[in-house]
Amino acid sequence: MDSSNKIGLTSVISPVEEILSALFQRFDLRLFIKRDDKLHPHISGNKWRKLKYNLRQARQLGHNRLLTFGGAYSNHLAATAAAGKEYGFSTLGVVRGEKVLPLNPTLKYVESCGMELRFVSRTNFRNKNQNSIFEDLKVNPNMYYVLPEGGSNCLALKGVAELVNEIIDQLGSPPDFLCTACGTGATMAGLVSGAKRKSKILGIPVLKGGFMESEVRQFLAACGEPLNKEWKIVDGYHFGGYAKYKPELIQFINHFKEKFGIPLDPIYTGKLVFALFDLAEKGFFRKKSTVVILHTGGLQGITGFNERHGQLIQ
């Protein structure tokens, strides 16, 4: 099989596992988790889905270089670097903020995959969608296949949308609720696109600001998807903002892994699952509903989180 056919790992279907939670059972609910964290050791979760069709298009257009953007602990940078190494692309990562030595575990990993790193100020990073940042970097964007921050574009939505039918096939029927953490909003938009009103899509933002609904709507509109009403953003579970946390979140993540054997990261999936358990206890889900959690991966970030904050995540 040549590399162009291999891109996308089309033979891989992540498992769906039932979580036998006493809380959910008390409310006559069934809880499942779609283990996209198991798709690939290093290109996992929603990053695998988002990169799938982008890498195919890069190959079809004759590109052998990828350029993308991210923060210092970016799951997207890690996944892109791993994909570049596996599929023969050179990679350039533009990192938000000044270079700090020694490099954190994420940036050490991406360099080990062969990714070249360029660091830019937070002010310049805001210009990542404009030509001025390429001029500052002295980079010709035409020499690269340029991926947006988070890999979030219409091809990403296409990859994420495939999740829905996978889950329906695995469960035998559409779930009542399909739930995801939200960073850029692209994963949520992809699920809305794929569900086509078969399931209610629930999004838990990991950033504060109350802008996520607008972001999802913009993605749907830009990608020609209908703005159906079968989705909802539930704010209030960001724990202070992106990458912020409180002791109850850490306790929940560690307890969840101990009880169910499933690791969660403190940036995305930990906040998502905490929110769903809290919502269930508050009677958010109607009785006899089937609730599916999308595990979007991001587990590589635990090492860097523990390095910054002490060994909090077990």
Tags for this model:
16% strand; 314 residues; disordered N terminus; 10 strands; alpha/beta; 6-stranded mixed sheet; 4-stranded parallel sheet
Blueprint of the fold:
Elements lengths: L2 H4 L9 E4 L2 H5 L3 E5 L10 H16 L4 E6 L4 H13 L2 E7 L8 H8 L3 E5 L1 H4 L5 H7 L7 E2 L7 H18 L5 E6 L3 H10 L4 E6 L6 H11 L8 E3 L13 H14 L8 H13 L8 E5 L6 H9 L5
Parallel strand pairs: 2-10, 3-4, 3-6, 4-5, 7-8, 7-10, 8-9
Antiparallel strand pairs: 1-2
Helix pairs in contact: 3-8, 4-5, 8-9, 9-10
- How far apart are the termini? 39 Å
- Rg (CA only): 19 Å
Give me the side-by-side strand order of the main sheet.
1-2-10-7-8-9
Order of helices and strands: HEHEHEHEHEHHEHEHEHEHHEH
Total strands: the figure is: 10
Shape: globular
Helix content: 40-55%
Oligomer: single chain
Instruction: Give the low-confidence spans.
Output: 1-5
Largest sheet: 6 strands, mixed
> Averaged pLDDT, please?
94
Strand content: 15-25%
Helix/strand-derived category reads alpha/beta
Helix segment count? 13
Please, could you describe this protein's structure?
The chain is of the alpha/beta class. The chain has 13 helices and ten strands. The chain has helices at 3-6, 22-26, 45-60, 75-87, 105-112, 122-125, 131-137, 154-171, 186-195, 212-222, 247-260, 269-281, 301-309, and strands spanning 16-19, 30-34, 65-70, 90-96, 116-120, 145-146, 177-182, 200-205, 231-233, 290-294. It has a six-stranded mixed sheet. Strands 5-4-3-6 form a four-stranded parallel sheet. The protein is globular and about 60 Å long.
